[in-house]
Amino acid sequence: MSGLEIIFLIVAGVTLLASLFVVTTPNLVHAALWLILALFGVAAAFVLLNAAFLAVVQVLVYIGAIAVLMIFAIMLTRRVMKDSGPQTNANWVWAALLGLLLFAGLTFVLINSGAEQASLPALALDADPIAQLGQELVSPNAYVIPFELASVLLLAAMIGAIVVAWKK
Amino acid sequence: MLDNWLYIGLFIIVALFIPAVAVLLPRLIGPRKPNAIKQEIYECGIETVGDAWVQFKVQYYIFALVFLIFDIEMIFLFPWAVAFDKLPLFAVMEGVLFIMILLVGLVYLWRKGALEWA
Amino acid sequence: MSDPINLISQWFANLLLSWGLAEGLVKVISSAIGAAIVATLGLVTVIALIWVERKIAGRLQDRLGPNRAGPFGLLQPFADIIKIFTKEITTPNGADKVAFNIAPVLAMASVLLIWAVIPFAATVVGTNINVGVLYIVAVGSFGIVAVLMAGWSSNNKFALLGAFRAVAQMVSYEIPMVIALLVPVLLARSMGMNDIVAAQTPWFIVIAPLAALIFLITSMAEVGRAPFDLIEAESEIVAGFHTEYSGMGFGMFYVSEFLHVWTVGALMATFFFGGWSGPGAENLPILGIVYFYIKTFIGYFLVTWIRLSLPRIRIDQLLAFNWKFLTPLALVILIATAIVDKALEIAGVERWGYALIMLAVNLFIGWVTILILKAVEPRRKRQRVEFAPRPVAVAPKTPDS
């Protein structure tokens, strides 16, 4: 086993354990804090896959913005310090079963997709992957429409959020 | 590439370890005499009423929401800025259009009054 | 190579290899030692800074500053350290013990981590990852989480309120900060810190002075120092999110704030003052480190000076200043920089002509901004309070006397 594999196993283990605590801990704020650890684990996994940009974005968006937003939402709506009932109801068995089924299905698809044999298209050695990403994002032959659409989508999301949340 | 991240991974460990030691050390060498009055929550000498939770302004939530959306848009622009050398004028204007749409959102917020702290 | 630091690390790696250790292990060990040295250097700098800052504050407020412990009060920080280490750490009733103790550690780590990517000299750099700028912003989000944890786990109304204020302020000011950072990234065509330093001929403070100004202002708000210290407005919410912390728990927040200000100086130096570059720095890395520290100190002194000069602003002013002034201005600067940069590239204008035109564009935008501000909020005429001179010790006449 190489050092990289050991690190991956540790990262994956921490991520899984943290996600388990997210759904089992009785305290909602604790769940949010465990979620932050799980998201950080995912970022570390991205680093191990040589996707540094995604890793940094993961931390920036999911921990810096979404997790903070969640904690805000929890604190705005709940009496958090006293809130400590059980997190699950009677249907947790079915939910667990469904989760397991989904995992099995995904694993099956992955194994049979032949992804192991497929080789990745080689990047030019001297090329900066981020510069390539930037070029692709605004190139008319690649992703320019999704790029501009994303902007419009986010604008719509912002307007929607304000309409829903902001009442004078 | 991964060598760089090895350094950062180790740096994370070191950066957590040093302050952890600094916080734990006084527990060993410092005094430890808790009593009921010392442990009380500090509210300028007045006894606490109710729990710490009080009703917060929804405005805090709105700022976090708007931040999230702006944050994502900014991230899209970073690769665009890095690739700037290889972009034709057309692609540059696309990025500018992207920023303009962002500005429209800001103008909307402003006109709607969501930026006022009322 | 006339670089003693790399020579030592090379020699050390070879020494470990000669002991028969595996190559991967040697890399891990030398990286860990490098990380430990950089982190410790940051903390040692803070010890010096506490003295420097108190001395500056004293002089600017017409006092002497620390002058009892040792010559010029130089031993004052050591006295402070001994004191804070021997203080009891209390945990308030009903606090969430684990989160309460993790929060100060996380706050410190979030600031220390920035130093992993800061280049000290041409060859002395922790790492030059290609997402350096985004990494710095991302690491800052751990600071936000730490503040939320501290405020929530203290079980104190003031702490929770302070945490809410702090987070609202930090996330709001992060937007113009990120936009302002896009400008040096765009000018250098890279997110790597060392690449940004290398691209600065002339320094970006000349090419993008408005972006530098916005970055300075927003960083001060991120740190939460006056005039943006509503986070710990003592007249309103005791001490904000760290109300319940004592001893070293508070000490960690305090030290992380100091180190953060120093880090802001370092980032200003790296992004806008040309980092380690200077005459002779290419060939003599030690000289680069000296330049870097001098520039960092200039950035640090600016922040401290502003802190000691301006009063605290109100929260509505704080948010309006961010959303209605800094954010639109930053977006306009980004658009102008992008268009002018491309236009000059097509026109084939190089270096000094380029810098001059960029500077002119920035000055023009600044001038228009001031005109708009004057039109929107005309300056009120100074009101003179007129009354007859009053002798000090005479009581004013009242009707019944």
Question: What brief labels describe this structure?
Answer:
heterotrimer, A: about 170 residues, mainly alpha, Four Helix Bundle (Hemerythrin (Met), subunit A), C: about 400 residues, 2 domains, 14 helices
Overview of the structural elements:
The complex is a heterotrimer of chains A (168), B (118) and C (401). By secondary structure, chain A is mainly α. Chain B is mostly helical and 118 residues long. Chain B is built from 3 helices and no strands. Chain B is flat and about 70 Å long. Chain C is mainly alpha-helical. Chain C is built from 14 helices and no strands. Chain C is globular and about 100 Å long. Chain C starts with a helix and ends in a 25-residue tail after the last helix.
Structural class of chain C: mainly alpha
Strand segment count of chain C: 0
The count of helical stretches of chain B stands at: 3
Specify Rg of chain B, calculated over alpha carbons.
Answer: 25 Å
Q: Say what oligomer this is.
A: heterotrimer
CATH topology term of chain B: Methane Monooxygenase Hydroxylase, Chain G, domain 1
- pLDDT averaged over residues of chain B: 80
- Largest sheet of chain C, described in full? none
Described by strand count, sense and barrel closure, the largest sheet of chain B is: none
Provide a quick synopsis of the model:
The complex is a heterotrimer of chains A (168), B (118) and C (401). Chain B has helices spanning 2-29, 58-82, 89-112.
Topology:
The complex is a heterotrimer of chains A (168), B (118) and C (401).
Chain A: H1 3-24, H2 28-48, H3 52-77, H4 92-112, H5 129-138, H6 144-165
Helix pairs in contact in A: 1-2, 2-3
Chain B: H1 2-29, H2 58-82, H3 89-112
Chain C: H1 4-18, H2 23-60, H3 76-85, H4 97-112, H5 132-153, H6 157-188, H7 193-198, H8 204-207, H9 209-223, H10 234-237, H11 247-271, H12 285-309, H13 315-347, H14 351-376
Helix pairs in contact in C: 1-2, 2-11, 4-5, 4-11, 5-6, 6-9, 6-13, 9-11, 9-13, 11-12, 13-14
